[in-house]
Predict the structure.
Amino acid sequence: MNKTIVALDFSTKDEVLDFLKQFDEPIYVKIGMELTYACGLDIVKEVKEMGHHIFLDLKLHDIPNTVKGGMKNLAKLGVEIVNLHCAGGIAMMKAAIEGLEEGSVGGKRPLCIGVTQLTSTSKEAMNDELGIPGEVIDCVKLYAKNAKTAGLDGVVCSVHEAKAIHEVCGPDFLTVTPGIRLADDSKDDQKRVATPAFAKEEGCDHIVVGRSITKSANPKETYYQIEEMMK
Ligand SMILES: O=c1ccn([C@@H]2O[C@H](COP(=O)(O)O)[C@@H](O)[C@H]2O)c(=O)[nH]1
């Protein structure tokens, strides 16, 4: 299975097709809110029909009953991974798994992973704006433990927390890590960033890469260079 999940953060179907036509084998892609809100869930079906593996990144966060219903319908799409915000709590996460099980196709539900703290959140923002005291790592570890208790398959975290999460939740608990930059000093909206090489060192299961690939002069070459770094 590919280690790199490419974030298809585009606003039109044409951009998606232009991007994907470079690849002559299935890759792992992430479809998030930008693309879904532009093209609807039909784009998920189309990309799936092209043979690509899909992480549907809609980050659900609502009351348990609503998340259960939402997940039940997302499960019917037959994607590989869906997600939610761990901040919704254990009852919400348990409800999500129930919904996925009810909606699953062929008895196999999508994997469900929880966003711990967004990789765009710094310690200062977490403390002062979100009102969560302490270190990011402690909050991320607590949310990961809650996700495991609720029956989730893993979490979204930064590379810097992946090793600690595997220690606390076990080696099979998935760590999916965005905030990947090819050089450590290139920061934008992302705050907790790391290189693919460091992600490999820290044992991340998958890295999520958007702009470093999609805005590269040669996206296909950059994708395969990153895949090589993760081997
Ligand atoms: O904590 C999170 C959760 C999700 N993301 C998503 O990953 C990609 C990253 O894109 P880049 O262009 O490589 O920064 C994007 O789709 C985010 O929505 C995240 O960055 N951090």
